[in-house]
Design goal:
Radius of gyration: 24 Å
Largest sheet: 5 strands, antiparallel
Structural class: alpha+beta
Strand content: 5-15%
Distance between the termini: 40 Å
Helix content: 40-55%
CATH topology of the largest domain: Hypothetical protein af1432
Number of helices: 13
CATH superfamily of the largest domain: Hypothetical protein af1432
Length: about 375
């Protein structure tokens, strides 16, 4: 093992000891073969020296060469193998779920709620959930009036993932997902002129819109095969930990766990979905906003869980920054995971240092 200055490093060398940032976060693990972009990352973190094993072998050289050969585009960017095959089954079941509730939601006032039919399709969709990327999935929505149905399905999926990550008993995962699917069902009783109004609501219109929580509870209380938490999620998803929400200004200890999970999913997808009167917001900016709101309004443990798991999955993901440049996430600081390091045509951009830039879109 030999200590080598970063300025003298070459691609293809193998690291003999873990490399840490000045904050103690693991940057590279022992045994990693350095690639060309890794040298830029070391410079970006102002690492002076690293411990190397002896001379690099053919494996290291080949690894470095492979990165340079990897599907180069004219502008110098690279592309990863297409993942559409994995996502195809998910998208097919997703579209089926949206179509099913689009026809079913408007009928719940006059007919019995087809819970078993919706649950059966939801289970088919969840079977394909490996194709779902919370930060990267953008549904096809040519008609912006379909927002409510896409929002419902996305909240169902994200609530399901949160239930798994939060160690909710497995027998309840599908119920949490149903809570996400049905939380806005009460909006079927809201006049379309209010529901789809492109401008700010008048006070009386806002009051009627807020009633969707109690409308939803009243509709669902007559349904079968639903846990009480599903009904309470419809009623409480706009309540806030500090008592600033509605309809009853309840505080955190009085809120059901399903309600607190759905509240986080609801806000996330309301802000990241494209709507007729408002464009989508960057999912990374939304995560930062959720983190701010977790101090007093949202359950901080649920928000931290969402941020931790979604950003963990983003290493190697291609992104578009707010300056419209495309790049790839190469490192995420454990303390600020919404502001990773991005490689753009070999240039390393540290979003922690450059606060004016942010990830606009996950590709």
């Amino acid at each position: 093992m030999v200590s080598v200055s970063v300025t003298e490093l070459e691609a293809g060398k193998k690291i003999a000891a873990n490399v840490y940032t000045d904050k103690g976060n693991l940057l590279f693990q022992k045994g990693r073969v350095l690639l060309p972009r890794d040298l830029e990352i070391l410079h970006a973190f102002m690492i002076d020296q690293v411990e190397l094993q002896g001379a690099s072998g053919e494996t290291g050289k080949k690894a470095a060469e492979q990165e340079n050969k990897e599907s180069a585009l004219p502008n110098g960017e690279t592309v990863r193998p297409n993942v559409n095959r994995k996502e195809k089954g998910f998208i097919e079941e997703y579209d089926q779920m949206v179509a099913l509730i689009k026809t079913g939601f408007p009928s719940v006032i006059a007919m019995e709620i087809p819970i078993f039919q919706w649950r059966a399709q939801l289970e088919k969709l969840i079977d394909q959930i490996q194709g779902y990327r919370i930060l990267g999935f953008t549904p096809r929505m040519p008609d912006k009036h379909d927002y409510m149905y896409h929002h419902a399905v996305l909240c169902a999926l994200t609530s399901y993932m949160l239930a798994r990550w939060l160690d909710v008993p497995q027998k309840n995962w599908i119920q949490v997902s149903l809570a996400g699917l049905l939380h806005d069902l009460g909006k079927v009783k809201i006049s379309p002129t209010i529901l789809h109004k492109p401008t700010s609501l008048l006070p009386e219109e806002k009051a009627e819109m807020d009633n969707h929580t109690t409308y939803g509870y009243q509709i669902l209380k007559n349904a079968t095969a639903l846990q009480e938490g599903v009904l309470l999620a419809a009623l409480q998803h706009h309540e806030r930990i500090d008592g600033s929400g509605y309809p009853f200004a309840l505080t955190g200890e009085k809120l059901h766990l399903y309600s607190k999970i759905v509240a986080v999913a609801d806000i996330f997808h309301a802000m990241t979905l494209d709507r007729r009167y408002r464009g989508a917001t960057s999912p990374y900016l939304v995560l930062e906003q959720l983190e701010q709101d977790s101090f007093g309004k949202l359950d901080p443990a649920i928000v931290r869980t969402l941020i931790k798991h979604t950003t963990q999955l983003s290493l190697g993901t291609r992104v578009k920054l707010s300056n419209r440049k495309m790049g790839e996430i190469v490192y995420a600081d454990a303390h600020q995971p919404t502001r990773p390091i991005v490689s753009i045509n070999g240039e390393i951009v540290n979003l922690i240092q450059d606060r004016k830039l942010f990830i606009l879109e996950v590709l």
